[in-house]
Write a structure and sequence with these properties.
The chain is α/β, with parallel strands linked by helices. The protein has helices at residues 11-21, 27-45, 83-92, 139-149, 165-174, 202-207, and strands spanning 5-7, 51-57, 62-68, 73-79, 97-98, 100-105, 112-118, 127-131, 134-135, 155-159, 162-163, 179-182, 184-185, 188-189, 195-196. It is 32% helix and 30% strand. The relative contact order is 0.18. Bound molecules: 1-O-pyrophosphono-5-O-phosphono-alpha-D-ribofuranose and uracil.
Protein backbone atom coordinates (compact mmCIF):
# COMPACT_ATOMS: atom_id res chain seq x y z
CA UNK A 1 0.00 0.00 0.00
CA UNK A 2 2.86 2.43 0.79
CA UNK A 3 4.00 2.62 -2.86
CA UNK A 4 0.43 2.94 -4.06
CA UNK A 5 -0.29 6.20 -2.21
CA UNK A 6 1.43 9.56 -2.64
CA UNK A 7 0.72 12.24 -0.02
CA UNK A 8 1.91 15.67 -1.14
CA UNK A 9 3.88 17.58 1.47
CA UNK A 10 4.78 20.48 -0.82
CA UNK A 11 4.56 23.82 1.03
CA UNK A 12 2.41 25.44 -1.67
CA UNK A 13 -0.13 22.63 -1.48
CA UNK A 14 -0.15 22.60 2.33
CA UNK A 15 -0.64 26.39 2.42
CA UNK A 16 -3.59 26.25 0.04
CA UNK A 17 -5.13 23.28 1.83
CA UNK A 18 -5.04 25.11 5.17
CA UNK A 19 -7.13 27.90 3.63
CA UNK A 20 -9.55 25.33 2.19
CA UNK A 21 -10.01 23.78 5.63
CA UNK A 22 -10.78 27.17 7.22
CA UNK A 23 -14.56 27.43 7.65
CA UNK A 24 -14.31 31.19 7.07
CA UNK A 25 -13.22 30.58 3.46
CA UNK A 26 -16.12 31.31 1.10
CA UNK A 27 -17.12 29.45 -2.06
CA UNK A 28 -15.22 31.65 -4.52
CA UNK A 29 -11.86 31.20 -2.80
CA UNK A 30 -12.62 27.54 -1.97
CA UNK A 31 -13.22 26.82 -5.68
CA UNK A 32 -10.04 28.62 -6.68
CA UNK A 33 -7.96 26.72 -4.12
CA UNK A 34 -9.49 23.38 -5.20
CA UNK A 35 -8.40 24.07 -8.78
CA UNK A 36 -4.96 25.34 -7.79
CA UNK A 37 -4.20 22.25 -5.72
CA UNK A 38 -5.46 19.96 -8.49
CA UNK A 39 -3.15 21.74 -10.93
CA UNK A 40 -0.13 21.41 -8.64
CA UNK A 41 -0.88 17.71 -8.10
CA UNK A 42 -0.66 17.14 -11.86
CA UNK A 43 3.09 17.62 -11.78
CA UNK A 44 3.56 14.42 -9.75
CA UNK A 45 0.51 12.46 -10.88
CA UNK A 46 1.60 12.85 -14.54
CA UNK A 47 5.32 12.37 -13.96
CA UNK A 48 5.40 9.11 -15.96
CA UNK A 49 3.81 10.49 -19.14
CA UNK A 50 6.05 9.40 -22.02
CA UNK A 51 7.96 11.94 -24.11
CA UNK A 52 9.29 11.86 -27.65
CA UNK A 53 12.09 13.87 -29.18
CA UNK A 54 11.43 16.30 -32.04
CA UNK A 55 13.61 18.66 -34.05
CA UNK A 56 12.87 22.36 -33.56
CA UNK A 57 14.34 25.67 -34.58
CA UNK A 58 14.85 28.34 -31.95
CA UNK A 59 15.49 31.94 -33.08
CA UNK A 60 19.19 31.11 -32.65
CA UNK A 61 19.58 27.65 -34.18
CA UNK A 62 18.32 24.07 -34.48
CA UNK A 63 18.02 21.67 -31.55
CA UNK A 64 16.08 18.69 -30.31
CA UNK A 65 13.26 19.13 -27.81
CA UNK A 66 10.89 16.81 -25.96
CA UNK A 67 7.11 16.84 -26.24
CA UNK A 68 4.41 14.55 -24.87
CA UNK A 69 4.30 11.36 -26.92
CA UNK A 70 0.61 11.58 -27.64
CA UNK A 71 -0.56 9.44 -24.72
CA UNK A 72 -4.34 9.72 -24.61
CA UNK A 73 -5.82 10.77 -21.29
CA UNK A 74 -9.32 10.98 -19.85
CA UNK A 75 -10.42 12.83 -16.73
CA UNK A 76 -13.42 11.48 -14.84
CA UNK A 77 -14.73 13.72 -12.06
CA UNK A 78 -17.10 12.11 -9.57
CA UNK A 79 -20.13 14.43 -9.43
CA UNK A 80 -20.46 16.86 -7.95
CA UNK A 81 -17.34 17.79 -6.05
CA UNK A 82 -14.90 16.27 -8.55
CA UNK A 83 -15.96 18.97 -11.03
CA UNK A 84 -14.12 21.45 -8.82
CA UNK A 85 -10.82 19.86 -9.94
CA UNK A 86 -11.69 19.47 -13.62
CA UNK A 87 -10.98 22.86 -15.21
CA UNK A 88 -7.53 22.98 -13.63
CA UNK A 89 -6.40 19.60 -14.92
CA UNK A 90 -7.85 20.38 -18.36
CA UNK A 91 -5.67 23.51 -18.39
CA UNK A 92 -2.68 21.17 -18.05
CA UNK A 93 -3.89 18.64 -20.67
CA UNK A 94 -6.41 20.38 -22.95
CA UNK A 95 -6.60 17.41 -25.35
CA UNK A 96 -7.90 15.03 -22.67
CA UNK A 97 -11.46 13.75 -22.92
CA UNK A 98 -13.86 13.96 -20.00
CA UNK A 99 -16.26 11.41 -18.55
CA UNK A 100 -18.63 11.91 -15.63
CA UNK A 101 -19.78 9.53 -12.93
CA UNK A 102 -22.64 10.72 -10.72
CA UNK A 103 -22.66 9.29 -7.20
CA UNK A 104 -24.08 10.61 -3.98
CA UNK A 105 -23.74 9.19 -0.50
CA UNK A 106 -26.98 8.05 1.05
CA UNK A 107 -27.32 10.16 4.20
CA UNK A 108 -28.37 7.24 6.39
CA UNK A 109 -26.16 4.40 5.16
CA UNK A 110 -23.29 6.53 3.73
CA UNK A 111 -23.25 4.07 0.81
CA UNK A 112 -22.77 5.56 -2.67
CA UNK A 113 -25.77 5.65 -5.01
CA UNK A 114 -25.11 5.89 -8.76
CA UNK A 115 -27.24 8.38 -10.74
CA UNK A 116 -25.18 9.22 -13.83
CA UNK A 117 -22.52 7.60 -15.98
CA UNK A 118 -21.15 8.94 -19.28
CA UNK A 119 -17.64 7.94 -20.31
CA UNK A 120 -15.69 8.68 -23.53
CA UNK A 121 -16.43 6.03 -26.18
CA UNK A 122 -12.72 5.29 -26.66
CA UNK A 123 -11.87 5.07 -22.96
CA UNK A 124 -10.29 1.65 -23.59
CA UNK A 125 -7.47 3.53 -25.38
CA UNK A 126 -6.97 6.06 -22.57
CA UNK A 127 -5.21 6.47 -19.25
CA UNK A 128 -7.84 7.67 -16.78
CA UNK A 129 -7.52 10.12 -13.89
CA UNK A 130 -10.48 9.95 -11.52
CA UNK A 131 -11.06 13.22 -9.65
CA UNK A 132 -12.77 13.75 -6.29
CA UNK A 133 -11.56 16.08 -3.53
CA UNK A 134 -12.74 13.76 -0.73
CA UNK A 135 -11.90 10.12 0.00
CA UNK A 136 -13.83 9.37 3.19
CA UNK A 137 -15.12 5.77 3.59
CA UNK A 138 -13.83 5.14 0.07
CA UNK A 139 -17.20 3.81 -1.10
CA UNK A 140 -17.64 6.39 -3.86
CA UNK A 141 -14.11 6.03 -5.24
CA UNK A 142 -14.24 2.22 -5.12
CA UNK A 143 -17.58 2.15 -6.97
CA UNK A 144 -16.59 4.81 -9.52
CA UNK A 145 -13.41 2.92 -10.38
CA UNK A 146 -15.30 -0.39 -10.63
CA UNK A 147 -17.71 1.26 -13.07
CA UNK A 148 -14.84 2.68 -15.16
CA UNK A 149 -12.99 -0.65 -15.18
CA UNK A 150 -15.92 -2.28 -16.99
CA UNK A 151 -14.86 -0.20 -20.04
CA UNK A 152 -11.26 -1.48 -19.89
CA UNK A 153 -9.21 1.73 -19.69
CA UNK A 154 -5.43 1.38 -20.10
CA UNK A 155 -4.79 2.55 -16.53
CA UNK A 156 -6.51 4.41 -13.70
CA UNK A 157 -5.13 6.92 -11.19
CA UNK A 158 -7.14 8.56 -8.43
CA UNK A 159 -6.53 12.19 -7.44
CA UNK A 160 -8.11 13.58 -4.26
CA UNK A 161 -7.33 16.39 -1.87
CA UNK A 162 -8.18 15.02 1.60
CA UNK A 163 -8.15 11.30 2.37
CA UNK A 164 -9.16 9.41 5.51
CA UNK A 165 -7.21 6.29 6.51
CA UNK A 166 -10.38 4.20 6.05
CA UNK A 167 -10.80 5.46 2.48
CA UNK A 168 -7.20 4.77 1.57
CA UNK A 169 -7.48 1.25 2.99
CA UNK A 170 -10.75 0.52 1.18
CA UNK A 171 -9.50 1.89 -2.14
CA UNK A 172 -6.09 0.24 -2.13
CA UNK A 173 -7.57 -3.10 -1.10
CA UNK A 174 -10.36 -3.00 -3.71
CA UNK A 175 -8.15 -1.67 -6.51
CA UNK A 176 -4.48 -2.51 -5.85
CA UNK A 177 -3.61 -1.48 -9.43
CA UNK A 178 -4.75 2.16 -8.94
CA UNK A 179 -2.22 4.81 -7.87
CA UNK A 180 -3.68 7.23 -5.31
CA UNK A 181 -2.59 10.87 -4.95
CA UNK A 182 -3.78 13.11 -2.12
CA UNK A 183 -2.77 16.40 -0.52
CA UNK A 184 -3.35 15.17 3.03
CA UNK A 185 -4.08 12.00 4.97
CA UNK A 186 -6.32 13.05 7.85
CA UNK A 187 -6.95 11.43 11.22
CA UNK A 188 -10.32 9.71 11.09
CA UNK A 189 -14.01 9.79 10.21
CA UNK A 190 -16.72 11.09 12.55
CA UNK A 191 -20.06 9.34 13.18
CA UNK A 192 -21.52 10.91 10.02
CA UNK A 193 -18.54 9.61 8.00
CA UNK A 194 -17.14 13.12 7.50
CA UNK A 195 -13.37 13.41 7.49
CA UNK A 196 -11.81 14.81 10.69
CA UNK A 197 -10.48 17.50 10.66
CA UNK A 198 -11.28 17.52 6.92
CA UNK A 199 -12.83 20.54 5.29
CA UNK A 200 -16.55 19.82 5.56
CA UNK A 201 -18.78 18.99 2.62
CA UNK A 202 -16.67 19.68 -0.45
CA UNK A 203 -19.60 19.77 -2.90
CA UNK A 204 -21.55 22.22 -0.79
CA UNK A 205 -18.51 24.46 -0.30
CA UNK A 206 -17.62 24.46 -4.02
CA UNK A 207 -21.15 25.16 -5.20
CA UNK A 208 -22.40 27.19 -2.22
CA UNK A 209 -25.37 24.92 -1.64
CA UNK A 210 -25.41 25.17 2.15
C1 LIG B 1 -18.67 13.40 -1.37
C2 LIG B 1 -17.31 13.44 -2.03
C3 LIG B 1 -17.11 12.02 -2.45
C4 LIG B 1 -17.77 11.24 -1.36
C5 LIG B 1 -16.73 10.71 -0.44
O1 LIG B 1 -19.67 13.43 -2.32
O2 LIG B 1 -17.23 14.36 -3.07
O3 LIG B 1 -17.69 11.72 -3.71
O4 LIG B 1 -18.63 12.16 -0.65
O5 LIG B 1 -17.28 9.90 0.54
P1 LIG B 1 -17.01 8.34 0.61
O6 LIG B 1 -15.54 8.14 0.43
O7 LIG B 1 -17.47 7.98 2.00
O8 LIG B 1 -17.82 7.67 -0.44
P2 LIG B 1 -21.22 13.48 -1.92
O9 LIG B 1 -21.77 12.09 -1.86
O10 LIG B 1 -21.40 14.32 -0.69
O11 LIG B 1 -21.88 14.15 -3.17
P3 LIG B 1 -21.67 15.61 -3.78
O12 LIG B 1 -20.29 15.68 -4.37
O13 LIG B 1 -22.75 15.68 -4.80
O14 LIG B 1 -21.86 16.62 -2.67
N1 LIG C 1 -17.70 14.05 1.64
C1 LIG C 1 -17.31 15.33 1.88
O1 LIG C 1 -17.58 16.24 1.08
N2 LIG C 1 -16.63 15.57 3.00
C2 LIG C 1 -16.31 14.61 3.89
O2 LIG C 1 -15.66 14.90 4.91
C3 LIG C 1 -16.73 13.30 3.62
C4 LIG C 1 -17.42 13.05 2.48
Amino acid sequence: MENQVTVFDHPLIQHKLTHMRDKATGSKLFRELTGEIAMLMCFEAMRDLPLKEIDIETPIGTTKGKVLAGRKLAFVPILRAGCGMLDAVLEMVPAAKVGHIGLYRDEATHEPVEYYNKLPADIDKRDVFVLDPMLATGGSAVDAISIIKKSNPKSIKFMCIVAAPQGIKALTEAHPDVQVFCAAKDEALNNDCYIVPGLGDAGDRIFGTK
